[in-house]
Amino acid sequence: MSKIFNLLESMNLTSRETMEVLSNSTRDIKQLKVYKDSSSDLIYIDDFFIGDHVYRDGGYREHQATSSVASLEDIADCNRRVNDFKEFYENKVVCDFGCGAGTFLVDIKNDTKASYGVELQEDYAIELNKKDIKCLDTINDIPDNLDTCFLFHVLEHLEDPIHHLDSIRNKLTNKGKIVIEVPHARDFLIKELNLEEFIDFTLWSQHLILHTRESLEAFLIEAGYKNINIYGVQRFSIANHIQWIKDKIPGGHRSKLKNLETDQLKNAYQDALNNIDATDTLIAIAEK
Fold first, then answer.
1. How far is CA 83 from CA 80, 87, 148, in A?
2. Assigned CATH class of 4-233+283-287
3. Is 255 a residue whose pLDDT tops 80?
4. Sheet hosting strand 146-152, strand order edge to edge
C-alpha cells in the first residue's frame, strides 16, 4: 500500500486491520480496488491517480466548455451555492478552486470584489478568461490574497490533498475562509442500504477519497485550519432514492416521481438524512 493509504494511516483513519475491499472495480475501470474502512467508514482508492494530463484535456467530461446548456443537476447545484454562500462571496476576493466551466463564478462575479478560477482544463480556462474571469493553473498564480476559497467536489480528486489545502490556507487573508463540498462516504444508499447497483454506479477512479465528517475535519486540522463547521446537504432528492430502491437505476429526480416533491418534503428529507448522518454530500467551512 502507498500514497493515499499511507496518508490515511498516518492520520489514524485506516489501517491494514480495518481496511476491506468494497469493490474490485469502478464504473470506468474494471480492475481497480476500492477500499472501505470498517472502523471509520472512509472509502478510498490507493496507489492510483489518473494524471493531470487527463484533467487538462477534459475529454472525460460529458459537457465541454463550448456547450451552451448546463445540466439540470449543475443548475440546481449552482443555485443552491449562490443562495447559501452569499456571506462568503459578497464584496469579497474569492477563488473557485477546480472551477470547471465556472458557472458559479459567472453567477457571482458582479457581487464580488474580485473573482478567480483555478482550473486545469484548458478549454474551460480559455472560455472563462473570455468572460473577464481570470482563470489560472495554480492558486499561487493569483495576485491577491483571498477572503474565501471554494472547492466544490474537488478535494476527492486530489492525489496530495493536504498539500493543496495548505497552499490554499497560505493564500487566505487573516480570518479568510475555505468552503469545501465533497461526496459523503455514509451516503444513505451506501451505508444504510448497501445498494450494490448504486455502489457500482457511483464509484469512480477519479474519486480517490469519499470522506466522512470526521475525516474531513481531520484533513482540515492537519492543514492548519480552525473554527471548522461541517454539515450535510442532500443533492439528490427522495424521488431519486425511490427510483434507486425500486428499479436500481438513477434519474428519479427527472421522472414522474419528481411530481411528489415539494420544498417542504425536500427539506424534511434532508433533515431526516442529516439526523442519521446519511446525506449524499458534506459541506465544510473553516477559517485560516
1. 5, 10, 16
2. alpha beta
3. yes
4. 134-136, 114-118, 93-97, 146-152, 172-183, 281-287, 226-233
Banded pLDDT at 65 (limits 50, 70, 90): very low
Q: Write down the pLDDT at residue 69.
A: 53
Where do the H-state alpha helices sit in the chain? 4-10, 52-57, 72-84, 86-89, 103-108, 122-130, 161-171, 188-191, 196-202, 213-222, 238-247, 263-275
Helices (H) and strands (E) in the chain, counts: 12, 11
Please check whether residue 58 is in contact with residue 121, taking contact to mean a CB–CB distance below 8 angstroms.
yes
Residue 60 scores a pLDDT above 70: no
Find out whether 288 and 174 touch, Cβ atoms under 8 Å: yes
pLDDT of residue 67: 46
Spatial distance between the Cα atoms of 189 and 244, rounded to a whole number of angstroms: 8
| Strands 114-118 and 146-152, sheet pairing | unpaired
Domain segments of the chain as ranges? 4-233+283-287
Q: What is the pLDDT of residue 88?
A: 98
Q: What distances in angstroms separate CA 88 from CA 141, 160, 175, one per listed residue?
A: 21, 26, 12
Handedness of CA 54, 218, 15, 39 (dihedral sign): negative
Cβ 173 vs Cβ 149: under 8 Å: no
From CA 183, how far away is CA 211, in angstroms rounded?
7
pLDDT at 63 over 90: no
